[in-house]
Design goal:
Number of strands: 13
Order of helices and strands: EEEEEHEHHHEEEHHHHHEEEE
Structural class: alpha+beta
Number of helices: 9
Strand order of the largest sheet: 5-4-6-3-1-13
Strand content: 15-25%
Bound molecules: alpha-D-galactopyranose
Oligomer: single chain
Length: 362
């Protein structure tokens, strides 16, 4: 067992399939090259020290008594608690956290932090390492039960399973992950920051300031948990377990805004399948149309867009993008654009491509 390791976990871009993960639906994310790094050194005792020096932030706690806490400290303490609860025998450690994914940006630095912390803690311990999906679920519990955001499994699976040149078709009913070649020819994908952060964004991951006591960015805008409740309520009224079992006709029987929420999820699942088909046929223009349709549905039916996001979508379209849509939980963050051959990358936009998933270096 090594006495020190460096864990890296990437953020993600979701090509399409938004707000489907907690509805047992489909999504098509890929891991990006930016992410969170955690360097771990095994300690002598049973303490865990966490430092994010670029933020002047630190924490220290006993393995046996990690919490509960909220805010930035909830990530490492939650990681220790959840790994131990899952049967991993952890060693004390000193953890140094740094990151390159902007907080609250819709690129999932919270999942990257959770995954990197878990891999680093396990890397210096004589511990059983949970399998991919099991580890994704542990990370998601950190976010749900410690950080306080009722997010699904999209971000954690993307961070753990990412592959070069491929997106991941994830079926959240079966938790089957199928890599899909992201051959875009001379087209490219870019992200452009709307400049708006999730309303409750707090300190996290080593990327930004904050008091370390706020909700954590995993705490999405309040609207996120509200959308989740609306989807659950729609299921309750229709007598089904998840929106995966609902048709457009059934959704039409719901009162507003639940009908519109359900319609988004149903059509978004269809768009994921259509995107997989368009990619395999090399019809990249159609991928662009599907991105636009996804954005319209997120704006009009799911109502997670904002004026800043709309301006950013328009900027990308005006610059020549053949498709553009909000990514992540919504209410701010980054917009994804599909840029055709011969069109310059718009000012401020950053090219993104699929990279490998989380990894450990000794
Ligand atoms: C956030 C959550 C994910 C997912 C997306 C919306 O990124 O963390 O679980 O629900 O929003 O698709």
């Amino acid at each position: 067992m090594p006495s020190s390791v460096t864990a890296f976990a990437p953020g993600r871009v979701n090509l399409i399939g938004e707000h489907t993960d907690y509805n047992e639906g489909l999504a098509l994310p890929f891991a990006i090259t930016d992410g969170v790094t955690v360097h771990a050194r095994r300690g002598d005792g049973a303490r865990v020290d966490v430092i994010a020096s670029d933020l002047n932030r630190h924490d220290s706690f006993e393995l046996a008594a990690p919490g509960p806490v909220r805010g930035w400290r909830a990530f490492a303490r939650g990681a220790v608690a959840e790994l131990q609860a899952a049967g991993s025998k952890l060693a004390g450690a000193k953890l140094e956290v740094s990151g390159t994914v902007p907080e609250g940006s819709g690129l999932s630095s919270s999942a990257a932090l959770e995954v990197a912390l878990c891999l680093a803690l396990l890397g210096v311990s004589d511990a059983r390492v949970p399998e991919g999906i099991a580890l994704a679920k542990i990370c998601s519990r950190i976010e749900n039960d410690w950080v306080g955001a009722r997010t699904g499994l999209l971000d954690q699976i993307a961070s753990l399973f990412g592959e070069d040149d491929r997106a991941l078709r994830i079926d959240f009913r079966t938790l089957e992950v199928s890599p899909v070649s992201l051959g875009l020819g001379d087209y490219s994908l870019v992200t452009l920051d709307s400049g708006q952060r999730h309303a409750n964004a707090g300190a996290r991951g080593g990327e930004s300031g904050g008091d370390g006591e706020s909700g954590g960015d995993g705490a999405q805008a309040p609207g996120y948990n509200q959308r989740r409740e609306e989807c659950a309520r729609a299921c309750e009224l229709l007598g089904v377990d998840s929106l995966r079992d609902v048709t457009v006709e059934m959704a039409a029987r719901l009162p507003d805004p639940l009908a519109a929420r359900a319609r988004h999820v149903i059509t978004e699942n269809e768009r994921v399948e259509q995107t997989v088909a368009a990619l395999s046929a090399g019809d990249i223009e159609h991928v662009g149309e599907l991105l636009d349709a996804s954005h319209q549905s997120l704006r009009d039916c799911f109502e997670v867009s904002t004026p800043a996001v709309e301006t950013t979508v328009k900027t990308l379209h005006d610059a020549g993008a053949v498709g553009a849509r909000i990514i992540g939980g919504g209410f701010g963050g980054h917009v994804l654009g599909l840029i055709p051959p011969g069109v310059a990358v718009p000012e401020g936009a950053v090219a993104v491509q699929p990279g490998p998933g989380a990894r450990l270096a000794v």
